[in-house]
Amino acid sequence: MVYDILNQNNLCTYYTISENPGITQKDEVRKNKFSFLDDAQVQAILIQFTDGTNTRVLFYLPQMHCSSCIWLLENLHKINAGIKSAIVDFPKREISIDFNSKECSLKEVAELLTAIGYEPHINLSDLNEKEVKYTNRSRIFKLGIAGFCFGNIMMLSFPEYFSSGIYDERGFRDLFSYLILGLSLPVFFYSASEFYISAWKGLKHRFLNIDAPIVLAIVITFIRSVIEILNGTGSGYLDSMSGIVFFMLAGRIFQDRVQSSIAFDRDYKSYFPIAVAVKNGDKEESIPVSKLKVGDRLVIRHNELIPADSILFYGKASIDYSFVTGESLPVPKGIGEIIYAGGKQMGTAIEMEVVKEVSQSYLTQLWNNEAFHNDNEKQQSFIHQLSKSFTLILFSIAALVSIYWWIYDPSKIINSLTAILIVACPCSLLLSATFTNGNIIRIFNKNKFYIKNATVIEALANANTIVFDKTGTITKSESSKLQYEGIELSNFQKQIIRSLAAQSTHPLSKAVFNELSQFPLLTCTHFSESTGLGIQAFVAGSEVKMGSYIFIHGHYKSDDTASKVYIQVDGKKLGCFVLKNKYREGLSGLIANLRKKYSIALLSGDNDAEKKYLQNLLGNDAEILFYQTPQDKLNYIALLQKKGKKVIMIGDGLNDAGALRISNAGIAVNDNSNNFSPACDAVLNGAEFSKLANLISYAKEGKSIIVGSFVLSILYNFVGISFAAQGNLSPLIAAILMPASSISILIFTVGLSALFAKIRGLS
Question: How far apart are CA 509 and CA 303, in angstroms?
Fold first, then answer.
C-alpha cells in the first residue's frame, strides 16, 4: 500500500525526499467526508491553538505502526506547503500538526492524512474527551496465545528433557512432537508477526535494528525444528522459539505500560509544580493550576504563562506564543479576545476569565515542543550503540564458527550455525534499560525530581561539571530579609513602586512586592524590561524604574554589602531595597559532596558583595562570576562544552533559560513559582534541593546497572554460544538459558535500582 501511494504520486525517491520533495497527493477522498471540519464550533473544540494564521491540531491515527509511518507523517510539509511541521507521538499514535490556516484548512489537513492512508480518528460524540485512549489489544492477544502455547509446549517437552531424547514408546514421541509442532504454528505465524514487520521496515531503511537477530532466531529455530520433527531425528527447539516470542512480547507490553505511566505522570502537576493567581473579590489567592475551573478570574503578570484558554477582561495583552509556534514576535490582544494556553504575557498585568479547562496533555506538549530541543548537544544513547554492536558481533561469531566447521567438519555447519542464532537472544538487552529507567523515574518522581525523559538520566550520569545560578536557586528569596536604605519614601511612592514590582516575576521584584503588601495596586502603562537588569513603567503619571545599580546609575558599583534593588522615580534616585540572602538548607553539605566528583562554578547577575562567603563555600578552585546577563550565562556554558565538559546547569528557570537549554542537562529549581520554563530537562522542587547530589549519583548508578545487566546478558549468551558453536546445544539447555536470562535481568535491574535508592535515602 505504501509503495502504491508513493508510486502514484511520483514519490519513489522515498529515501531522499529531503533533497527531492514530493508533490501533493491525488488520492481521492469521499466528497464532503470532512465537511464538518469547516464548522466553527467543531474547529473550536478540535483546534488546540490558533492566532489567526498559525494553527495547531492534534489527531489520533490508529493506523500508525512503524518507523516508515513516522517518517512519512513527519514529512507532510514536503507534500503540502501549507503544513509547517508535524510531530509524531508514536506510543500514543498521535500527530501534532502546525499549519498555516490561510493556505491550508483543517478539512484539507484531514483529507491529506486520509489520502496517504492515515485517516484521523474523529468521533464527534467524544469530542469533549481530553484524548483518545489507545490500547494495543492485538499485542495482548498475541501474548496470551504465545503464553498458552509456550506453557503447553514446555509441558509436552518434559519427556524429551528427562529421557535425553530416548523414548521407550516411539508412538508417544511422535505424538508429542506433532502436538508441539501444531502449538508452535500460531506463535510463529501470528504472535511473532510484529517482529517480522519491524525487521523488514528496518531493512527497507537500510538499518539493522535489534529485531533482525530476533526474527532470524525465530525463523531458523522454526525451520530446523520442523525438519527434525518431520525426519524423526529430534523434537527441535520450538519451546525456545515460543519462549523468545513470549518474553519479547511481555517486555514490549511492559515497555508500553511504562511509557504510558510516564506520559501520565508528565502532566504539568508533576513537572511544573506551579500556582496561578486567582482574583476573589478584591483579594488574590494562589491556587494550583490543576484546580482551575471555567469562570475563574486569573491575574497574569509579565513573563507568566497562560495556563488555560481564557478571554481577556482587563489590561493590554501582548502575548508571546514562542512556546507554541517557536516565533517570538508578541501578538497584541484586545478586551474580549480569546488567548490560548501556552502564551506568555509580555507587559503589564492583565485579568482573564477561563473559558476552557486546563489540558494537561497540551502543557506536556509545550514541555516537549520542538522549538526547545537542543539537537546539537544531545547525543544518541549508549544503549542504541550497544544493541547495534550486539547484533554485529552475533553475526560475526556465527560467520566465524561456520568457517571453522567448513574447514574441519562441514557436517556440523548447519547445526552449529542455527544453534548460535537460536540461543543468542538479545531480548534481555532491551528489557534491562526499560526496567531500570522506569524504576529510576519512579524514584525521581517520588522525591519531587521530575525529568523530561529517560535520556536525561544518561546526561546526568555523564556530567563532570555543575554550574549554579545564585538568586532563586541556592538562595530563597521568599525567606530573605528586606530593608530600605535612602531617602524616605512617601506612601504614594511606596504604592507606585509596589505596582511596578507586581509586574515582574523576578525574585527581587517579588520580595519588594511582598514587603509593601499593605499598599493597593495602581495601573501600569508602557511597561518594559531589560532582562537581567531591571524594569520600568509609568504608574499614575510617574515614571518609575527599579533594578540593578547599573540600570539606575549607568555604571557598576562593587562595594555593595548585599543584593539591592535601586529605585528611581521621575528621574530622581531615591535609594534601594537591601536583600539579605538566605541560603537553602543543606547547601553547604550538598556542595561538599559535589566538590568531590565535579568541577563547580557559580554565575550570578547580582553584585559581588558575597563573593568571599561563596568562595569559601564552593572552594578556591570554583569559578564565580557576578554581573552576568542571561547571554553571559549562555556563553559560559557553551565555552565549557567547547572544552569537552559535560555540564549540568542548575537555575531558577527565569533568567537562565538560555543556559538551561544548551547545557547537557538543565535543572530548574522551583519553589511553587507560577513561571513556566520549557527550556530545562528537569524540575526539582526547592524543598528537595539538599538531595541533589544523591539524585545525580543515583542517575550515575542507574547507568552502571544497565551496563551490568548487559554484561550479565552477555555471560548468558557466552555460555549458550559455547555449547552451540560445538554443535552440542541440547533443547534442555536452550530451554533453560532463554527464560533464565530474561528473568534474572528483571530481578537484577529492579532489585539493584531499589537497593541503590534505599542506600541514597531516596526510597
Answer: 13
Residue type, 30: R
Structural domain of residue 346, as residue ranges?
A: 275-363
The residue count of the chain comes to 763
Q: Which residues contact 676 (CB under 8 A, 6 or more apart)?
A: 272, 274, 304, 305, 323, 344, 366, 653
Residue 335: give its domain's CATH number: 2.70.150.10
Beta bridge partners of residue 47, listed in sequence order: 57
Classify residue 269: in a domain, yes or no.
no
- pLDDT for 565 beyond 80: yes
Residue 617 has pLDDT above 70, yes or no: yes
Q: Are residues 164 and 259 in the same domain?
A: yes
Which CATH number characterizes residue 617's domain? 3.40.50.1000
- For helices 193-204 and 137-162, angle between their N-to-C axes, nearest 10 degrees: 110
Strands 599-603 and 465-469 turn out to be parallel
pLDDT one-digit tens code per residue, 520-547: 989 898 888 886 688 999 999 999 999 8
Considering the domain architecture, whether residues 590 and 470 belong to the same structural domain is answered as yes
Do 291 and 147 have their domain in common?
no
- DSSP annotation of 521 reads P
CA–CA separation, 106 vs 503, rounded Å? 38
Last residue of a domain, one of 126, 148, 171: 126
| Domain-ending residue, one of 103, 126, 149 | 126
> Which residues face 57 on adjacent strands?
47, 97
Is the Cβ–Cβ distance between 422 and 228 less than 8 Å? no
Beta strands in 210-293 (DSSP E): 275-280, 283-288
According to DSSP, the β-strands at 572-580 and 647-651 are unpaired
Q: Are 478 and 671 in contact (CB under 8 A)?
A: yes
Report the distance separating Cα 622 and Cα 624, nearest Å: 6
Task: Tell me how far apart the alpha carbons of residues 106 and 711 are, in angstroms, rounded to a whole number.
Answer: 51
653 belongs to a structural domain = yes
**Does one domain contain both 255 and 142?**
yes
Both 409 and 465 in one domain: the answer is no
Is residue 132 included in any domain, yes or no?
no
CATH code where residue 121 lies:
3.30.70.100
Residues 121 and 15 in one domain: yes
Q: b/e for 557-584, b at 16 or more Cβ within 10 A? A: eeebebbbbbbbbeeeebbbbbbebebb
C-alpha cell at 761: 535515602
- Alpha helix stretches (DSSP H) within 602-668: 611-618, 630-642, 657-662
Residue 117 is assigned to a structural domain of this protein: yes
String of b and e for 135-145 (b: at least 16 CB within 10 Å)? Answer: ebeebeebbeb
Is the torsion defined by CA of 543, 544, 549, 550 positive or negative? negative
Whole-number Cα distances in Å, 626 to 607, 629, 650, 663, 727: 6, 9, 16, 19, 70
Total number of domains constituting the chain: 5
Q: What is the pTM of this model?
A: 0.57
Average pLDDT over residues 491-510: 86
Q: How far apart are CA 87 and CA 77, in angstroms?
A: 11
Nearest by Cα to 419 from 729, 29, 756, 89: 729
**C-alpha cell of 574?**
531615591
Clarify whether residues 144 and 255 are in a common domain.
yes
CB count, 10 Å around CB of 25? 21
Cα separation of 306 and 358, whole Å?
10
Q: What angle (nearest 5°) sits at the alpha carbon of residue 70, between those of residues 361 and 742?
A: 85
Residue 602 β-bridge partners: 468, 624
Q: Based on the domain organization, do 329 and 347 belong to the same domain?
A: yes
- Phi, psi at 288, each rounded to 5°: -60, 145
Say yes or no to pLDDT of 427 above 90.
no
| Class of residue 56 by CB neighbours under 10 A (exposed 0-12, middle 13-18, buried 19+) | buried
pLDDT category of residue 71 using cuts at 50, 70 and 90:
confident
Average pLDDT, the chain: 77
Q: Please, which residues have CB within 8 angstroms of residue 580's CB and are 6 or more apart in sequence?
A: 480, 481, 482, 483, 562
3-state SS assignment for residue 72: helix
